[in-house]
Design a protein that fits this description.
Layout (H helix, E strand, L loop, with lengths): L3 H14 L13 E2 L2 E2 L5 H17 L6 E3 L4 E3 L3 E3 L6 E4 L9 E4 L2 E3 L5 E2 L19 E3 L2 E3 L4 E2 L5 E2 L10 E4 L2 E3 L4 E2 L5 E2 L2 E9 L2 E12 H5 L5 E2 L4 E2 L32
Antiparallel strand pairs: 1-2, 3-4, 5-6, 7-8, 8-9, 10-11, 12-13, 14-15, 16-17, 18-19, 18-20, 20-21
InterPro entries: EGF, FBN_EGF_N, Fibrillin_U_N, GAS-SHBG-PROS, TB_dom, TB_dom_sf
Protein name: Fibrillin 2
Organism: Oncorhynchus mykiss (Rainbow trout)
């Protein structure tokens, strides 16, 4: 016969373990005050074990589990396989196309590139690489402004580079030594100035003067430099010693002192 003391012990045991399984054979179930307390047969014990096993399988595991031991869930951007309990499947908001979702919201494309989305072979798959920010579509490059060529590797200069300069970027010239300016149009080389040309030979070098070609040819010169370069024809030559917008004044020898009459 169950007493109140035995029932108190039973309640304490239930509080500690969280469940109670009692196998009763050939005896009436325990009662208190004419009411049945608990009766569990063999089938009910097996069902309880299945519930516990199922509960253990449903607990989430893996590196991407958030929450506590009693309330766990997959961290944002991760999910489980159907019927699984490991948070190892990444979630991508956008379609990965011909690639696959390798981490939350990031796709690994067939080319090996990692991006938020991948193109499809029918529209964006390319077997070539476009340079300088060009976009590839169906094995053809669509170049950004300022570049041209099959692979967008050739820069474009709207105005041609002068005096041996070459185009190295959109409207950007690399000038050879002695030239400057957006199109290498300014000549800052210095050399001797010649006042006479005879039989394609430069003669009459101005003594003690080294200047730019512009300065030489706009003043007394007929040829300039070494090797000698002919001065361009000037239908309206500048007034001697005056060159508009030229940074260097004409270098002339100092005037001779006047002789005294005494």
């Amino acid at each position: 016969m169950w007493t109140k003391r035995m029932f108190s012990c039973l309640v304490g045991l239930v509080a500690l373990t969280g469940f109670l399984v009692v196998k009763v054979t050939g005896q009436d179930p325990p009662t208190l005050g004419g009411k049945t307390l608990l009766k569990v047969d063999g089938d009910q014990t097996a069902a309880s074990n299945r519930v516990r096993r199922r509960g253990k399988q449903e607990s989430l595991r893996g590196p991407n589990v958030c929450g506590s031991r009693f309330h766990s869930y997959c961290c944002p951007g991760w999910k489980t396989l159907p019927g699984g309990n490991q948070c190892i499947v990444p979630i991508c908001r956008n379609s990965c196309g011909d690639g696959f979702c390798s981490r939350p919201n990031m796709c690994t494309c067939p080319s090996g590139q990692i991006a938020p989305t991948c193109g499809t072979k029918s529209t964006q798959q390319c077997n070539i690489r476009c340079m300088n920010g060009g976009l590839c579509a169906e094995d053809h490059c669509q170049c950004q402004k300022g570049f041209s060529g099959s692979y967008c590797g050739q820069p474009v200069c709207d105005s041609k580079c002068q005096n041996g300069g070459r185009c190295i970027g959109p409207n950007r010239c690399a000038c050879v030594y002695g030239f400057t300016g957006p199109q290498c149009e300014r000549d800052y080389r210095t050399g001797p100035c010649f006042t006479k040309v005879s039989n394609q030979m430069c003669q009459g070098q101005v003594s003690g003067i080294v200047c730019t070609k512009t300065l030489c040819c706009a003043t007394v010169g007929r040829a300039w430099g070494h090797p000698c370069e002919m001065c361009p024809a000037q239908p309206q030559p500048c007034r001697r010693g005056n060159i508009s917008h030229h940074p260097h004044p004409l270098l002339t020898p100092p005037p001779r002192p006047k002789k005294s009459l005494l």
